[in-house]
Amino acid sequence: MSNLRVKLSLFINYFVIGILLNSVGIVILQVIENYGVTKEAAGILEAFKDLSIAGFSFLLASFIPKVGYKKSMLVALITMTIAALLMKFFDGFLMSKIMFAMIGFSFALIKVAAYSTVGLITSGSDEHASLMSVLEGIFMVGVLSGYWIFGFFIDSISMSWVDTYWVLAAMCIAAFLLLWSTKLDESSVETESFNSLHEFLDMIAMVRFPLVIIFIFSAFFYVLIEQSIQTWLPTFNRVILQLPSSISVQIVSILAGAIALGRISGGYFIKKFHWMPVLTISLVCAMVIVIIVLPLTTGIEPGSIQTWIDVPIAAYILPLIGLFLGPIYPTLCSSVLSALPRNKQSAMTGLIVIFSALGGTTGSFITGQIFGKFDGQTAFYFTLVPMGLLLIALFLYGNVRKKFSFREI
């Protein structure tokens, strides 16, 4: 087995799913402008994405080891290709819902299978954490690229925005062919017998461990924070910073790029230093950015910003919070997965995906409610609450992990 080829395949899979999964904000804007859908109705696309991820992860995670990690990812890539082509030929609000449900299904398969595959091709917790950070970094590079790929077609005079899906379908096919031609040795996790109910209950039974409970809360709080900022930053830019609509959207790519850089560089630092102080310092720095930058976002006059030259420094600094948030999630996930026997990693990944999706939906909803009833500054100051809770959870998690081992289960 060529680990380099396997890693390349995982990177491409994550790059493509990153574009499709996080295009929900772009698609929401397009269905409002092109299909006459209200903002309230269009917002349901977020639920189709996140709840399908949580639901399919809950139902499918225990089946993936039996089906095989490679086959599961191949099925996901085929599904993504079909979803992209359907959106191209039958574009509309209903098709958008179906597409994101299909993408959610695909992401559940890819994430469970990819995280489990990392355990097969790495040795030691440091190497595992490093590859996980790079993998999640590549995901954010995909997210960043999506803004510009969609933007090219949206701004095109001769092409429609749905022509973007030709490119995305081609990427999915290329990823499928690479993975299909790559050998992956899964013999260490193969089982001769398979009982779906037993495997499903085995996933649920993971929650009996104190370490898993604390980890689940940590993952939930992290994704709540990230999704709160990522989903509502364009609106914050438009309403609070008074940026033009186009710049409000385009400048969010700084956040995606910062998260990607944070995750990739985090993989380097974790090789040099223990992951616990790295994550603690990162989270504290993220809190400091919120406290320092938000006071700079007040008193901006409507219509005072017309070009990129006029954009206030706060609009550039706030997205840099991604540099410090970036390393936290993949490192946390790696720390719990690398402590598990390989045949238990897919069950744990299922729980990760489920509670991450629930955290994302919760964060987006709560921030939107605060934004609507109060203001944008209050909504973003709110992120300090889950950041503080995550900091407490990190200390608890680090202490429990030192004394606990899954090796006997």
CATH superfamily: MFS general substrate transporter like domains
Report on the biggest sheet: none
Straight-line N-to-C gap: 28 Å
H and E order: HHHHHHHHHHHHHHHHHHHH
Mean pLDDT metric: 83
Short description:
With 409 residues, the chain is mainly α. The protein has 20 helices and no strands. The protein is 77% helix and 0% strand.
Describe the structure.
The protein has about 400 residues and is an all-alpha fold. Helix content is about 75%, strand content about 0%. It has helices spanning about 5-20, 25-35, 40, 45-60, 65, 70-90, 95-120, 125-155, 165-180, 195-205, 210-240, 245-250, 255-270, 275-295, 315, 320-325, 330-335, 345-375, 375-380, 385-405. Helix 8 runs antiparallel to helix 13 and helix 8 crosses helix 17.
Task: Summarize the topology.
Blueprint: H1 3-21, H2 24-35, H3 39-42, H4 44-60, H5 64-67, H6 69-89, H7 93-121, H8 125-154, H9 164-180, H10 196-205, H11 210-239, H12 245-250, H13 253-272, H14 275-293, H15 313-317, H16 321-325, H17 328-337, H18 345-373, H19 376-381, H20 384-403
Helix pairs in contact: 1-7, 1-8, 1-9, 4-7, 4-18, 6-7, 6-9, 7-18, 8-13, 8-17, 10-18, 11-17, 11-18, 11-20, 14-20
Labels describing this entry:
409 residues; mainly alpha; Growth Hormone, Chain: A; 20 helices; 0% strand
